[in-house]
Amino acid sequence: MGEWDAVVDVSNVCWSKALPPVGLEFPVWRRLEPVIAAWRREHGRDARIELVADDSLAAQLQSGDSRLFEEWKRSGRLRTAPVADHLVLDLAAARNLHVISGDKWRDHRRAHAWIETGPDRFHHWTYSDGAVRFRPVGIVPLPMRKVSQAEELKELSAPRVRLDPVRHRDIIQTRWRCPNELCPEMRNWREELLVWPSLRPRRRVVCPGCQGPLTALGPRPPHRDVVVELRNTRTEVLRFPVEWNIPLLLGRGEFAKGVDLAQVAVEFHAAVRKISRRHLSMRLEFAGSEPLLEVVELGSSRGTEIERGRGAGYESPRLIEPGRRVRMTLGDRLVLGGSVTLRLSGRRFRGSEPIPAVGDGEYGPVGATDVSPLDQ
């Protein structure tokens, strides 16, 4: 493979209003050719280029462009997938390709750690004076809470869900149950649907399993996910909810109200064995819309440290004295027994805490009608 071989996110290019015809707000196939030509002009005519697009792009293009899409696909010049992101990144990782796209791939950082170690492989385009040129996308390391937020927003916007965190917050903050006893989702979750409902025209809320109507059970209680990970690799060991103002124990033992880490998968046992049977207690609080996790060290044998968040990294760890209460914010994490970490997830729509006010959140002001929270 050549040094400047690349994979192009075709859907991203065709939707780009920055390319000619500039400002046109629907996908245009002819936006693709000047991008390919400019890349080869800058990096050599021998640079090989893989083209990858979402299947849905064909239906969004004008009729003539749609025919070109199908012709390129039949000829093998174009690869497609239901969601092209995974194929773009898999090809780039396997063949060490550059990526031509405007996306910053926030929701893929967990599965593709190489994104942050190879930011120079990601390129966006500019168009001025009749010419296409390239610049770095601007990939920077992200704390895992930001990655979690991006993952959740991607889940909400998925075709089977189609929920907007602002316009549909009443639906997001409602507990739902599917009354269909034969539904595959309800065979797993008898009392409450624990996946996002699907939204259909005229705000009809249906079950993602059987597509039948759902029964509203009232507001979701305020809670947040807590994530346990291996310290060295950031591999997720366990994710569990903590409800507002309800104490919870964590360790390697059975509790009336607690989390037993001895039950995790076998491959994590070596790390989890360093955690005491009663390691710590925790309780979720809120300061306005911001979650705080109050933690008490219970005298564990290997101790607990807190690492305060600083940008995408952490300050030096500080040992927590047994019996002392500390409060964690979204940017902090605990180190248990030197082997695993514990942090609050950045996912913020699992409970009924308020949407950030105008100017106070990254998802846009309340009442906005067109929210695009992910970098494009």
Automatic annotation (TrEMBL):
Record bears the keyword Transport: no
The entry's keywords: Phosphoprotein
Recorded superkingdom: Bacteria
Region (Disordered): 353-376
Signal peptide: none
Keyword field contains 4Fe-4S: no
Residue span, FHA domain: 248-311
Protein name: FHA domain-containing protein
Organism (species): Streptosporangium algeriense
Source organism phylogeny: Bacteria, Bacillati, Actinomycetota, Actinomycetes, Streptosporangiales
